[in-house]
Amino acid sequence: MCGRSSLFASPSVISDRFDVSPPAAFEPSYNIAPEDDIPVIRDETPGNAELRSWGFVPNWADDPGDWNGLINARTETVDEKPAFRDAFSRTEDDGTTRTGGHCLVLADGFYEWQERTDGKQAFRIERSDVEPFAMAGLWSRWSDDDHSLVTVTVLTTTANDLMEPLHHRMPVVFDAEEEREWLGESPPSKAELLAPHSGDGFEKYPISSEVNDPRNDSPDIIEPVDAPESDPQTGLDQF
What we know:
globular; hypothetical protein yedk fold; five-stranded mixed barrel; six-stranded antiparallel β-sheet; 239 residues
């Protein structure tokens, strides 16, 4: 799964890396949690990065307040689940109004927790060059007569060799050349795009439990720590 991420690159780095205008009022974050605003690029406005609430609410929901926002969608069933299928297929509510679609969820790292006999060990996963990257996402627009709300979810797939020791799921991570294909009107192969990342150019390392509390949002939480010697997942591993 993917339930915590970060993006603390500068607006100029975001702009250059993704060829977009950076989000307005962007504040770098080391610990982005569900229900926080998360930086995304939507297929409806592909020239702009923007901040949207992390926790998908279907456009047909009676009241967003009745929903516990869906932070992840499984690639295996995303085209079938009523909450996600319209956004995945980019079905329009009428001939002109977009109520959902594809997006890129921007990050420079995400976090996962490994179950151990003595508790959970947090890990950070990032590119070896620490550059930002994009994860596959969906967005939804809910509205009534007075309000409009755009929310997003991150797509997940089966874990690759790096992630499997930590969790059986991982976010769909794109290489740079795949990002605009996902935003395009007809991606050449959704199944191929949504497959687990090869792992080239990524790494993981253990970090402190400070990340567990989303109120902790500082560079300190991404500092590596020594993992318990009793566990084989120590030090820095190549992804």
